[in-house]
Amino acid sequence: MSSLLWRIIFSGEGNDEEETVMHLIKRNSLLVGGIALFVFGIFADPAFLTLFNIQNLLRNCSILGTLAVGVTIVMLIKEIDLSVGSLMAFTIILAIEVTAKVESLLGVVAIQGGHYMIHGMGFLIFFTLFIGLLAGLFNGILVTKLKIQSLITTLGVLYAARALSYIISGGHSIYLTKMKQLHWIGSGSVLGFPTPFII
Asked: Which helix (H) or strand (E) holds 116?
C-alpha cells in the first residue's frame, strides 16, 4: 500500500479510477495555498492563533465574503461586477443623508456635530437596502436592455459611485453613535463567533 502511494505521488502512476495526489493538488490549488498561508501564519507569529486574532479575521473576511456571494452569482452567468465595493460605500453614505433629511422633517436631529449619526437606525437600514436595490437594477438594465458589456457598465458605475460618495460626504467620515444594535451587528459576537461572520 505504501509503495503504491509512493508511486502515485512521485510518478503519477495508478489506476484510471484513482486520482493522483499531484492531480488533486492542481485541482485544489486555492485550498492548498490557503492552508499553506495558514501554516505560515502559525509559525511567523505566535499571536496568529489567538482567539482575538481569529475573531478579527472572521469579522473582516465576512464583509468581503458577503460581497463575494453576490459577485459569484453574477460570474456564474458569465458577467462581472466591478462596482460592488464603491456601491457598498455609496449606499450607506446616501442612506445616511436621506435618513438625516427624513428625521429632520419629523423634528428629530439624526446627525450631531456634522459627523456623528445618533438616530434613525430603521430608516438607515431601509434606505441602504433600497438604494442598493436601485443601483443593482440600474446596472442590470444597462447590461440586459441596453446591451452594454457588464465590465464597462460596472467600471463606470464604480467611478460614479465613488465620486458621488465623496461629494455627498464632503470627504468626511460619518460615525454611527448611540446605535447599540448596529454596533452589535458589526462588532458583537454570539458564542465567540463574530456577528458579521454568522450573518
From this structure: strand 116-117
**What letter does residue 46 receive in the DSSP assignment?**
G
Give start and end residues of each alpha helix (H) in the chain. 2-11, 21-27, 29-44, 51-76, 84-105, 121-144, 150-169, 180-187, 195-198
Please write the tens of the pLDDT for every residue from 130-147: 999 999 999 999 999 999
Please give the model's pTM, rounded to 2 decimal places: 0.75
C-alpha cell at 181: 444594535
The answer to whether residues 94 and 135 touch, using CB atoms and an 8 Å cutoff, is no
Look up cell 443601483; give the residue: 135
Task: Yes or no: say if 99 and 120 are a contact pair by the CB < 8 Å rule.
Answer: yes
d(CA 20, CA 12): 6
The torsion angles phi and psi of 176, rounded to 5 degrees, stand at: -95, 115
